[in-house]
Amino acid sequence: MENSNWIPLENQEQLNEIFNSKDPILVFKHSTRCHISAFALSRFTKEWNVSPNECQCYLLDLIRFRELSNEIAHLSGVVHQSPQLILWKDGKLVHTASHHQIDAEEIKSLLS
To answer: Of 6, 29, 25, nearest to 17 (Cα)?
Structure first.
């Protein structure tokens, strides 16, 4: 992973915690086989300077854990895309973006 602050999203228990948390949570759905996804993740990571205490950031490897991506789509109502960023705050979905619309500055403004 490009950033040590990313928490690998690898199981249903983590997903349950995300959906039940009142803290800000960001999930980046990343395809390790897609150059567009790699570019979006790299750009976001370079621009992201928010402390893990302010927002927990999960990275979902879509190749290894596609079933978790499907579950996110099912539970949130957000249609799956890759790359995709989803932000929850106060237990509610507040933002989703995909491809070139993924913008770290926009996410930072939503946290304040």
So the answer is: 25
Give the Cα separation of 56 and 18 in Å (integer): 9
Superfamily of the domain at 6-111: Glutaredoxin (3.40.30.10)
| Domain range summary for the chain, segments of one domain joined by + | 6-111
The overall pTM is greater than 0.90: yes
- The string of pLDDT tens digits covering residues 28-56 is 999 999 999 999 999 999 999 999 999 99
Could you please report the per-residue DSSP string of 15-77?
A: HHHHHH--S-EEEEEE-TT-HHHHHHHHHHHHH----TTT-EEEEEETTT-HHHHHHHHHHH-
Q: Which helix (H) or strand (E) holds 111?
A: helix 104-111
Give which of 22, 8, 9, 25 is closest to 68, Cα–Cα. Answer: 9
